[in-house]
Amino acid sequence: MRDVVIIGGGLSGLAAAVELERLGVPYRLIEVKPRLGGSIMTETEAGFVLDGGAFAFPKSDSWDFLTPLGLADSLITVHEVSRRHLVALRAGTQSVVDALAAQVNGTVLRRMAVSSLGAMDGRFMICLENGLMLEAAALIVAAPARHAERMLRTLAPELSLRLSAVDYDTITRVNLGYRAADLNRPITFPWDVAVPFYMWTENPARVPEGGLLLQIGVRLPPGQDESALSQHLHEHLKPDAPPLVERVDYWPDADPLPPHRKGFAAAMASTLAMLPEGVALAGSDYAGFALAARIASGQAAAARAAAYLRATAG
Ligand SMILES: Cc1cc2nc3c(=O)[nH]c(=O)nc-3n(C[C@H](O)[C@H](O)[C@H](O)COP(=O)(O)OP(=O)(O)OC[C@H]3O[C@@H](n4cnc5c(N)ncnc54)[C@H](O)[C@@H]3O)c2cc1C
Questions:
Q1: What fold is seen in the domain 4-38+98-166+258-311?
Q2: CATH topology (fold) of 42-92+168-256
Q3: Angle at CA 193, nearest 5°, toward 190 and 197?
Q4: Which of 67, 171, 223, 262 has the greatest number of beta carbons closer than 10 A?
Q5: Which pLDDT value is given to residue 189?
Q6: 167: CA distance to ligand 1 center in Å?
Q7: CB 114 near ligand 1, within 6 Å
Q8: Pocket mutation for ligand 1, best pick of 284, 286, 294, 299 (most atoms within 8 Å of C-beta)
């Protein structure tokens, strides 16, 4: 079978799968974790919708991609102290992942890690850590550069070397759910930790009746203990009662730094030009900053793979 193998079941890998579905191209998707979604995850606890990863986004981002996913009405406004016009997904960011996953009818292999990629006789070989070997006619690597560089060491050593230079920043995400009446106003946040964003919502879609959810993203210097953060914030806020829910997620490699640097687009274009024919890269480390950009990168990878299959059809 001339199919495409997609490696990575995060936002971009799922977007690639849905696009291949639309193009009528057979595919298999390999994801190392038991769940799909990658760095997007939402859980509900005591009526609070808690996002452990990406949570709030500029309203000015492009949101057209929500309509074909049936999520056109799902954006809600959240309150942010220093900036304005932030939105979030009503049922959490994972609703985007779930809507994409619902359109995936191809084979999804979970809990399988790809260790390396190779090529032989015009076919791509996918080596899994469990010793299995798969073959494919085209590949989409929808995993962050820190993983992709390992997979690509044999197939594209120069490209792999470039990807190994991608460095990352940490993000600690703190969710604290209170009874709104227990919090003093105005809500402020301490400045002695590097807090890149902080927001709160009382939207009934995200909190139980009378609840208020604080969501904070903190960049901690290396070595600082993230487990002390919620206590630190709690002491600063001095509420009348402890939080009803608390969730802290530490992401050591959350944010690729190159996209924030001058000259990123040109550098990435020259990196992507090193891709072997039949191989595409998709995901946040290679695209601009916004969910729409990650989805578009998955779709573009699918289009590249499909074009390669057409061009090499026997
Ligand atoms: C805390 C946090 C906050 C964020 N905030 C924002 C925000 O405000 N705005 C915004 O636009 N973006 C934000 N992001 C980024 C956004 O979540 C990501 O850009 C997007 O979800 C990335 O999707 P992706 O598919 O590129 O990668 P990922 O979500 O990383 O998915 C890659 C997948 O590949 C799998 N994988 C990796 N290696 C292998 C392997 N060897 N074999 C098989 N599978 C493998 C992983 O398990 C994972 O599921 C945030 C991210 C984090 C962590």
A1: FAD/NAD(P)-binding domain (3.50.50)
A2: Polyamine Oxidase; Chain A, domain 2 (3.90.660)
A3: 75
A4: 171
A5: 78
A6: 15
A7: yes
A8: 284
